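Protein modeling request. Please complete all fields; requests missing the sequence field cannot be processed.
Requester role: graduate student
Desired output: 3D structure, token encoding
Chains: 1
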Amino acid sequence: MSLSSPQAEPQPNGPLAKQAKPSPLKKPMVLGMLIVVGAGLLILAAIWFFHYWTHGRFVESTNDAYIQADQVTVSTRVSGFVDQVLVQDNQSVQAGQPLVRVDDRDPRAQMDQAMAQVDQGRASIVRAKAQIRQQEAQIAQSEAQLTGAKTQAKFAERQANRYGPLAAAGAETAEKYDQMRQNRDEAYATMAQDTAAALAARRQIDTLQAQILTANAQIEQAQAQVRQAKVDLDATLVRASIDGRVGDKTVRVGQYVRPGTAMMTLVPVQAIYLVANFKETQLSRMRAGQPASIKVDALGGKTYHGAVESFAPGTGAQFALFPPNNATGNFTKIVQRVPSRIRIDAGPEARKVLAPGLSATVSVDTYGAGADQ
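Delivered output (373 residues):
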């Protein structure tokens, strides 16, 4: 009779006990949670794909975008020393508001000199008119003398004619007849002299009239100089041409400025816009009027809305100082960018912080209005 060894009983904490532990996936609660999570992920993926297919693939974005404004450089058109600077850095100004006052003594002196020339021309006209009246009296005197000379010449002619036959008949001496002829010739010479004097007196009127015309021309020239001097005098007070904020102010009291000297810049913050440089491959569906979303980097990515206004008539390379010439040397194709102007719809408070030069990220929905135009 053989003895058999007893079978070993399984230990509660041995490896066989670990293999016999049921899998968590077999638990209904865990399996249900996994199914719900998986279904949720599938739904989210389907929603994302649906949104991308119907809308997202039509959105064109670029981070090559910057806020711009049509700023104006303030300069002067006259030379002189700056007397006053009437604005501060970053101050808001209105159109027509005084900005800088330049010393106005030189323009004022030029205007006074031009006005004196006007008065001088008017005095010349008055003097010429007085000379005309005096000349008219002299003309009357000359014509009276001419009338007397004509009468005297006729009398001398008749006297010579009467003494001619008498001298021929011996009733009068030849000496008397010669005297009568001499008187006749002297009378005609005097008449000719008075005729020339009367003609010269009448022509003097034309000379004086020409002097009046010359004085009038001088007055017009002086009046033009007065107007120019007044313009220069008004220009000594430099005013704002647009509404905006003062920036890049370099002018100082006592500084000597010349025409065209840049003194400050006016930035129309109320009329800012965005320039986005989209790649040429992104422009196939982009049109003016399509909505845009704008995120400004300096404002923590806050989103503003706007719309596409227009596109530049050429790529940025075409307006560069040295445009590229691809007809020579080796050629490497580079995707070009086209500047696009985008309107920003923002309130007054937002425009106080939206400064030109800030970078932004812009997205244009090409599925919107104007996509099929």
